[in-house]
């Protein structure tokens, strides 16, 4: 039995993947992985994901340069969530130009943006 067989893949062959900053512990993003992206992540030490909207593999940072170096992979007790301790190259994980995709918090009955844009996304994703 392969280590990949211990992962509980959903009906689309995907598993939830959480990228957490290895130094500070902040959750930077949540994405999806399939068998191939998880294998590539383990083999290369660079986070690879599966894009549900584009239906293809992607290496985090392939366009932006904001790669994620994986320090540790963990599988939860149910086998259906991967947590990766990562070093976020460039300090930006979110496509909005912020450190984390979790830049809004619930406050007083609504969502409030609490993290600044570190770099304009148009500068990051130049065509």
From TrEMBL:
UniProt lineage: Bacteria, Pseudomonadati, Pseudomonadota, Betaproteobacteria, Neisseriales
Bound cofactor: record note: Binds 1 zinc ion per subunit. Binds 1 Mg(2+) ion per subunit.
Phosphoribosyl-AMP cyclohydrolase domain location: 29-103
SUPFAM superfamilies: HisI-like
Protein family according to the UniProt entry: In the N-terminal section; belongs to the PRA-CH family. Belongs to the PRA-CH family.
Functional note: Catalyzes the hydrolysis of the adenine ring of phosphoribosyl-AMP.
Enzyme Commission numbers on file: 3.5.4.19
UniProt binding sites for Zn(2+): 77, 94, 101
Cofactor(s) required, per the database record: Zn(2+); Mg(2+)
Gene3D superfamilies according to UniProt: Phosphoribosyl-AMP cyclohydrolase
Protein name: Phosphoribosyl-AMP cyclohydrolase
Pathway: Amino-acid biosynthesis; L-histidine biosynthesis; L-histidine from 5-phospho-alpha-D-ribose 1-diphosphate: step 3/9; Amino-acid biosynthesis; L-histidine biosynthesis; L-histidine from 5-phospho-alpha-D-ribose 1-diphosphate: step 2/9
Annotated Pfam families: PRA-CH
């Amino acid at each position: 039995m392969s280590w990949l067989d211990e992962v509980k893949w959903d009906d689309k062959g995907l598993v939830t993947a959480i990228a957490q900053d290895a130094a500070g512990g902040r959750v930077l993003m949540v994405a999806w992985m399939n068998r191939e992206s998880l294998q590539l992540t383990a083999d290369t030490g660079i986070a690879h994901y599966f894009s549900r909207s584009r239906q293809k593999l992607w290496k985090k940072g392939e366009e932006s340069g904001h790669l994620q170096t994986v320090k540790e992979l963990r599988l939860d007790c149910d086998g259906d969530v991967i947590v990766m301790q990562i070093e976020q190259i460039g300090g930006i994980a979110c496509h909005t130009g912020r450190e984390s995709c979790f830049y809004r918090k619930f406050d007083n009955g609504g969502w409030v943006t609490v993290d600044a844009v570190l770099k304009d996304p148009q500068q990051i994703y130049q065509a």
